[in-house]
Amino acid sequence: RVFTRVPVTAHDFAFYVDVIRNPGIHCEPVRNYFSDLDRIEVLDDYTFRVIWREPYFLSESMTLSLSPLPRHFYDFDPARPDGFNENDQRNRMIVGCGPWIFDRWEKGSEVVFRRNEDYYGLKPHLKRVRFRMIKEPNAALQALRKGEVDRTGLTTDQWTDQTGDALFAERFEKMQETRRVYFYIGWNLRRPLFADRRVRQAMTLLTDRERILRDVYRGLGRLVTGPFFIDSPGYDSSLEPYPFDPQRARQLLAEAGWQDSNGDNILDKDGQRLEFTFLLISNHPYYSRIAPIMKEDMAKVGVIMNILEMEWNVYTERLNEWNFDACGLGWSLSYEQDPYQLWHSSEARKTKSSNHCGFENAEADALIETARREFDADRRNALYRRFHGIIHEEQPYTFLASPYSLSAIHRRYRNVRVYPLGTDLNSFWVPAAEQQVLD
């Protein structure tokens, strides 16, 4: 049951599918996973059937991932989807039927959930959970030390330099987890400069990723070369990361026509200087430090890299409008990944899609489409490794690293275990003598 006490029915699952498949709803990154879904049939209030028109290796997991979207709360006129997209009041309400019930939300401050006492499954041990919004990492760490929060993420510098004392270890447990994620620099292939593969390869050769891993991530992560989770069988571990090689980069740029024709130490071509702007999110804990390293190294070979920081909302708007030269972002990954959303050519032609760099490649498309129909995992992963090789050669991204997830939690919490997929909040508990009551 949702917090309104309206029963969850099969109609809510059907409504979820209707919303995703409505082309006017802003959910382009999700929609492609259901492109081969034919229909959902409601047999009665508690039974529905899902029919797929084409074989798709993720059809079972996508079916099992369907979420009930309460029709009585979100219902809208399918012919006027903007009413759904722009209804801020509904977007501020969290309606669910899981182990937690939305309690309150103070914008920019905190969100509070309470345990759903009527939940049909295994109930969490904790009764209430408060998530506080603290943007500045040092302020978050201070809040942890003062007892204002019980758990917080840590930056690599905090992990290495600020939390190694005996007092901290006595009060808090530090946790290092493998993250299914990678960070990258994306080159806008719609720009003439980055439409040339040799230029993109040169940009990667001018990015000192070993130094970035050592000095920015403090060695707490792994270099990656491609679009899959580094420990998954679709990732081709035989591919070596491009080295930091300014000399080879200069050769590639010369082959692409970029040379210093007037002796001003800036590469140029047809009267245009080799200059671009790197977009990044304001005060990002890593990209704000990565960008100056890149800028310095690129200047040494005659490349001008400007740095432009902006708030998240403006940043994503620029990406959605393809209004950028280069960007810094990261992707969270599934262990079993379908690269269609990020890499298929059809996604490059859609606004607000995940293929914001405009990558289009017929051979890559064929591999992605064939893999979608291949149910044998070994054969599918062989296709993915071939696809990984194409991405490695084309360099639409300069892949940086897969950093570890770093956090600290107060030691009064028990049963805090790190699993391959992370930690499970629902399993945490606190002895009665050490429990605290939220306001």
Secondary-structure blueprint of this entry?
Blueprint: H1 10-21, H2 28-31, E1 37-44, E2 47-52, H3 59-64, H4 71-74, H5 82-85, H6 88-91, E3 100-106, E4 110-115, E5 128-132, H7 137-146, E6 151-153, H8 156-162, H9 166-171, E7 172-177, E8 181-187, H10 197-205, H11 209-216, E9 221-223, H12 246-255, E10 268-269, E11 272-273, E12 275-281, H13 287-299, E13 304-310, H14 312-320, E14 326-332, H15 340-343, H16 345-348, H17 362-372, H18 377-394, E15 397-399, E16 401-403, E17 405-410
Parallel strand pairs: 12-13, 12-14
Antiparallel strand pairs: 1-2, 3-4, 4-5, 6-17, 7-17, 8-14, 8-15, 9-16, 10-11
Describe the protein's architecture and organization.
- The protein has 439 residues and is α+β, with helices and mostly antiparallel strands.
- It folds into 3 domains: 10-91, Dipeptide-binding Protein, Domain 1 (Dipeptide-binding Protein, domain 1, Alpha-Beta Complex), CATH 3.90.76; 125-178 and 406-434, Periplasmic binding protein-like II (D-Maltodextrin-Binding Protein, domain 2), CATH 3.40.190; 181-403, Dipeptide-binding Protein, domain 3.
- Helices cover 33% and strands 20% of the residues.
- The protein has helices at 10-21, 28-31, 59-64, 71-74, 82-85, 88-91, 137-146, 156-162, 166-171, 197-205, 209-216, 246-255, 287-299, 312-320, 340-343, 345-348, 362-372, 377-394, and strands spanning 37-44, 47-52, 100-106, 110-115, 128-132, 151-153, 172-177, 181-187, 221-223, 268-269, 272-273, 275-281, 304-310, 326-332, 397-399, 401-403, 405-410.
- A 5-stranded mixed beta sheet has the order 13-12-14-8-15. It has a 3-stranded antiparallel beta sheet with strand order 3-4-5, with no helix packed on it. Strands 6-17-7 form a 3-stranded antiparallel beta sheet.
- The model has no long low-confidence stretch (mean pLDDT 93).
